[in-house]
Amino acid sequence: MSVVKELIRTEENGKISFGNYELAQKSKVSDFEYDGDIYKVKTYKEITKLERNGMFVYESVPGTTVLDLEEKEDKMSFAVEGPQDAQITVEMEEDAEYKIVIDKEEAGQMKTNLGGKLSFSVELEQAEQVTVQIERI
Length: 137
Description:
This protein is an all-beta fold. It has one domain (about 10-135): Chondroitinase Ac, Chain A, domain 3 (Sandwich), CATH 2.60.220. The chain is about 0% helix and about 60% strand. The mean pLDDT is about 95.
């Protein structure tokens, strides 16, 4: 498994990676600039949270590492890893329906609430890394 030791970074492919579920104490990085936006990450074994320009983007309980996060207008994709199954919440467009695909298996369709939050679980105990794709229907 590969945690992000610097807590957040830009990858060679232009996507961002963040989170370190191995930390015993809460750590954070504020004012990380990426693609004209300012990101803030808080992470440790209990929770990983990402904000963009002060607004919620991603949260997992317990903490995870997210690799190659890519957000487009109507979709989001990333790889996630961690030592145990995790509950993930992401910010998408409010009151919209999305298809969720986990490790190339369709996990169903979900509608966001009025706050635009979408929550789902990923099984990480038996897998080293799980890919997630969320696309608006």
